[in-house]
Amino acid sequence: MTRGRLILFEGLDRTGKTTQSEALLKYLNLQGDQSSSSKRCELIKFPERSTPIGKLINNYLVDKSFKLPDQSIHLLFSSNRWELTEQIKSSLQKGNDVLLDRYVFSGIAYSLAKDTERMDFDWCLSPDIGLIKPDLTIFLTTDSDISTSNQINNRSGFGAERYEKSDFQLKVKAKFDIVFNYFFKDYTKSSSATTSNMYTSSDGITTLLKVNVIDKDIP
Ligand code: NYM
């Protein structure tokens, strides 16, 4: 049996990852229903907040007074991905597609944006080494730095959780560029917006959709 596809949606907060991944989930499951195969598609959102580690992460995100060293929360996010690894592998082996809403790249970009001493790129990547790599990564981002803060700020519910501050999001955006430049050949070259890779979401906020096939493995 051919193994299923692992498809990842990455991006800043409030750029449409959940909307797009849920739409693709629905589409792929509809296709599955119409074909003779019993293949199902599943969606896993990281952080997966229902696991023991996910519950801790959730507390940290919703309760801004909950203190944890940057190193500890970084390792918890990674650990949360490891908690789900067997489940992902087993679904893929059954031939099912698995969609991910955030993964390793968010882990590195958000932690790098904190500028914590001695938490450099290699340090941030290391706990994720060995995780299963996505076959396709779709990166959702806003189209310019000047508009990023306004666009993200205006989205409903923004600001409720830790990290949901426009100045921090701008830092994360810059770090995503570093992360994707490392993992994706020609990332910078293909990063300019063209009409064909832009869409406007229902609330009128323009979001740039970049699609990249990964060419460097998570080591
Ligand atoms: N986040 C998510 C990290 O800082 N590191 C990670 O490894 C992951 C997976 O969690 N602001 C942050 C990014 C988000 C926050 O995610 C919650 P979401 O997709 O808003 O539920």
TrEMBL record:
Pfam family, one: Thymidylate_kin
UniProt-listed InterPro entries: P-loop_NTPase (IPR027417), Thymidylate_kin-like_dom (IPR039430), Thymidylate_kin_CS (IPR018095), Thymidylate_kinase (IPR018094)
Enzyme class (EC, first level): transferase
Chain ranges passing through the membrane: none
Pathway: Pyrimidine metabolism; dTTP biosynthesis
Gene Ontology annotations for the cellular component aspect, listed alphabetically: cytosol; nucleus
Record-linked SUPFAM superfamilies: P-loop containing nucleoside triphosphate hydrolases
Entry EC no(s): 2.7.4.9
Family: Belongs to the thymidylate kinase family.
Protein name (record): dTMP kinase
